[in-house]
Amino acid sequence: MWLNISSAPFLLTGFPGLEEAHQWISIPFFAVYVSVILGNGTLLFLIKNDHSLHEPMYYFLAMLAATDLGVTITTMPTVLGVLWLDQREIGHGVCFSQAYFVHSLSIVESGVLLAMAYDRFIAIRNPLRYTSIITNSRVVKIGVGALLRGCVSIVPPIVPLHWFPYCRSHSLSHAFCLHQDVIKLACADITFNRIYPVVLISFTVFLDSLIILLSYVLILKTVMGIASGEERAKALNTCVSHICCVLVFYVTVIGLSLIHRFGRHVPRVAHIAMSYVHFLFPPLVNPLIYSIKTKQIQRGILHMFSLCKSKD
User: Which pTM was predicted?
Assistant: First the structure.
């Protein structure tokens, strides 16, 4: 009996109390998923094919777009499956894999945002040595480092999920799997799985945000020392897009953390909605931010559309 209960599939949850409206709710979700794929896919296509965008700043942007696509593609099948088909059951292996990719890619994204801050820091603080410091090989090493940090650091809390017994309710709180959701269902000593994520977030996301803040304090100090007002504005303008992406990512992270920790009396649907905001809002707006604020990307998009029209 114990084994049967432990091996039973988990049950994903859509929006409790709004099951009858799931078909309608799926429409904006589908629109957001398509927009995320098109927006980030377009950025990757432009950066790959436009030689004027073959610079470190845009390589880091490509990493950010690829990470956002990864998070989106990881959560999309189960979310739409629940909303469209009421497909709630998910096997343990698939669930743990999804949780692994969701959490690891979040840490990768934090690392990429940190790398982008480093790029802007060098470009403004030491512009004469920028090309010798931020070389293509160094960009690759930084990207691989961010990827490895995210992928390796999430392994310790995910592996034990495979041998934990699950004898409580198998209902999860979201339409996708999260580590903190799964361990609530485990009938085992989960002390490590409770402590490790707190330590991990402190040494990755929190530390990254602190270093990014420090880098912008130093950038601002450098910019204020520039005599020409036009040059100051030009230097700061190169940072605006990155600052917006940083704010979007970390504000949603903080919002999700606060509502989970202090929102006991907040309706459950608000918790669920905030989790979707965290995982979908940054991938949705990041391409828009860079398309609006970066002239090279604007030119690339216009050139791409002009080519499409000429073919027609």
Answer: 0.92
